[in-house]
Amino acid sequence: MDLKFSNAEPFADERDAVDRLLGAGDGGWHGGQRDEEDHRRAHSGHAARSQRHLVMEALHAVNDRVGWISPGALNYIGRRLSVAPADVYSVATFYALFSTNVRPKRIVHVCTDIACMARGSKEICAGLEKQLGPASATNGWKHSPCLGVCERAPAAMAVEAGDPPHEHLIGPATVDEIVLALNEGPAALAAEAPPVMAVPQAGQEGLMLLKRVGQVDPESIDDYLTTNGYAGLRRAFDMSPGEVISEVKESRLMGRGGAAFPAGVKWESTAKQPATPRYLVCNADESEPGTFKDRAILEGDPFALIESMTIAGYGIGAERGYIYLRGEYPRAYRMLRNAIEKARERGFLGADILGKGWSFELEIRRGAGAYICGEETAIFNSIEGYRGEPRSKPPFPFEAGLFGKPTVVNNVETLCNVPLIMQMGGAEYARIGTEGSTGPKLFCVSGNLVLPGVYEVPFGATLGDILKLAGGVPEGRKLQAVLLGGAAGGFVRADELDIPLTFEGARANNTTLGSGVVLAFDDTVDLPGILLRIARFFRDESCGQCVPCRVGTVRQEEALLRIAHNRHDAASKGRDVGILRDVGLAMKDSSICGLGQAAWNAVESAIDRLGVLRESR
Amino acid sequence: MNIHYPGGPAVTPVKQITIVIDGEEVSVPEGSTILTACNAAGKDIPTLCYGDTLTPKNACRVCMVELKGSRVLVPSCSRKVQPDMVVMTDTDRVRHSRRLVLELLDSSVDLSTTPRIPEWKERYNVDSDRYGKRASESLTRDVHDPGEHHAGNGDVAATMCQPIKIDNDLYVRDYSKCILCYKCVDACGTQWQNSFAIQIAGRGFDSQISTEFAAELPESACVFCGNCVEVCPTGALSFKSEHDMRVAGTWDESQQTETTTVCTYCGVGCNLNLHVQDNQIVKVTSPHDHSVGHGNLCIKGRFGFQHVQNRKEDGGS
Ligand SMILES: Cc1cc2nc3c(=O)[nH]c(=O)nc-3n(C[C@H](O)[C@H](O)[C@H](O)COP(=O)(O)O)c2cc1C
Ligand code: SF4
Ligand code: SF4
Ligand code: SF4
Ligand code: FES
User: Fold this and answer.
1) Looking at the complex, does the CB of residue A547 fall below 8 Å from at least one CB of chain B?
2) What pTM did the predictor assign?
3) What is the CATH number of domain B252-311?
């Protein structure tokens, strides 16, 4: 390949950041002295090109060090990895956490998404505008979609580029703290709330998925081992891979990431593929607004995921697994890195695990601010170093997934059920919950409730039960509506608390569990404002690949904006609701992926179920 | 991931697959798309992002059809036929979806030079004015802030409208007319040219076809093969000669003839279609079904025609 670069050169710290990731380059184009021969072209072979999958990590390295990606840094990444500068640019400009425009080293991302809106993010933004000027990178603060810290809403993430960079999730955030983070850096902030703060039930008897959160040191593999850690893997190793899959099938474990697909079936069809290598991808992108359950596990019990993935890898015959972690989870990143390192030291990862003669490696890949990368094929493109655009299906991941090979993608929570299944046996596990929804389930309970947090219950609890666990709405307020399943889910009314939160119960009631979001809004919340925020979210997060979603999400937001501004003109409101329905149906029918297909769900349910914006209102 | 367009003749005879389209049985070779089957059955399916020399990207979604058993509509241009598929090409759902895709495009993109748009607008009752007044030219579409946008009050419908890019003498880029079909990107990348000069930058509605940091073409990796112009379905990319004539009001396709000849610059043997108006070559295309180039040329064949029409009186030799 013959690539052409401009003359822009990297600054020393940009070069250093990339070299630390990739090792020092050799030859003129790879960081050494350039001579006449090199001129303006880089010549490199297949070895360099096959490093394309490092593009995201290289962009992170530069962005984390200096705060943005200059033309020189972009060229340097392209030269080191044999990727055209236009290609690197196209990747860099896809992700919200990367900037190709110069900006300060310190930025605070202030969550303005629905859970935080219900708990005062507007007031925070108003205060910041007064002190710092309007939201913009140059003023040091930006609006952010859901940061996955909804239990501590309103939330913010302070970032300071440097060596090392500092990242800090703040919640509940105040104007003063955000200003402090900007003036003195995130290091000046009080320590982050410990992981256990996300789990009000921590320490209670009978928890299965959350049993270790707050009870063990998440950085200690010894703590993990003394609390039954790796018992699941040992049990799995007593079985053949086929038997492991049989147990998972028998457990009737359904995916917890949103699509509710039976995990055992997915594993089996992947394991049956003749092509190798096969891959395992853990979806830890967790960006659906209102979702934060995976974070509780990743921060509070990271070894559980490592063990779970090792079992899954063994079952499907994968030798490598990837954890795709959203870029906004700094503590989860630290915990996972530590857990992988410790597990490798003790022989639970790497070559010949526990003397079984089977090897397994795990790598973490960080996202960089793109909800769409949680889509099961967009995640492949992102890991491979491309824009996070979903692929068209078929082929499905089990046939041709990551690097074109058979791949299993599972959510964090889904995977963390696997050690339980190994220990109890699939049949016994299947006795927990209901016929169509087996096992324990995590719910992300947030909004206007006394005790928001991640709650674990055996499948079968009703919406009312869950709200009661979280203490209900505060004294003196009235429940207005509940959003189930996140922005891609749907609203239900305050008088529908009997809905069983099982897959079949949600389906029978024409709603969805999605990723387990239960977001309660009391009577102080402006629901049309929430709808506008949801529309804005989809418009911002659409990858832009297909017309129904790329333009449809724009038209949806515009129609909602018009309705918000002419609330009293019934005729124009009717026309705009008509546009919403027309556009919504086309998005649902003709978008490439689930983002576009679900982008109108919440608005539709608000109109039809809650009566918000109803034509006659 | 791009898969190279498989050129060359098929070697082994392939199995025929029979599917049902609008109630009638149609047989096509295994591996064909639903679109191929629809064409064989005489259906006129609109397409925009589909290109006969490129791997289907199925991005525009105007070719959607209903497939029995499928929760959503499927893109006919890319979905392969399977035995016993039952396809419907003109149901209410299909018509609604096509109408909306055309409305969404027409309300945001200048489709004035996209072939067949008026016909399709009529066929599908397109009313793109209902989305409101179109937003005027934006000067910031080349600055990317993914995940953020300025939301107005819904008074104007967002558009692709932006200044035209004229940074060289050979071809112009008028991205106000761009439907983001990715064909130019695929032609410039691994599917044909391997120059990687252009890619899609930004995200969502703010995406743009772009070089790195929106550098001008002569500063970029572009080798001016014009193979992107060849595949562009909208006229967003066009010969400078065509652009100048359109501006002058002299462009008139009804007065043009097309002559196929062989490029004389080298021995490869690419075929050229010379488009001639008033005894002047006004642009050069290349036949897509030709086994040598599949519609692709290099800068010489594509743009090196001026010397054959320099006249004595213009000071030429
Ligand atoms: C736009 C979009 C975003 C998604 N984001 C996530 C996510 O952040 N985490 C996740 O586990 N699944 C997400 N999913 C669902 C995945 O596509 C996929 O179904 C899931 O990871 C499969 O794992 P499971 O079977 O264990 O649930 C998303 C889907 C779509 C369409
Ligand atoms: S539906 Fe939206 S997010 Fe999905 S591929 Fe299409 S444009 Fe991208
Ligand atoms: S003219 Fe050729 S090299 Fe230049 S952008 Fe178009 S396809 Fe790429
Ligand atoms: S410039 Fe033309 S070929 Fe390229 S994406 Fe736009 S419409 Fe398609
Ligand atoms: S022509 Fe099929 S999706 Fe564009």
Assistant:
1) yes
2) 0.95
3) 2.20.25.90
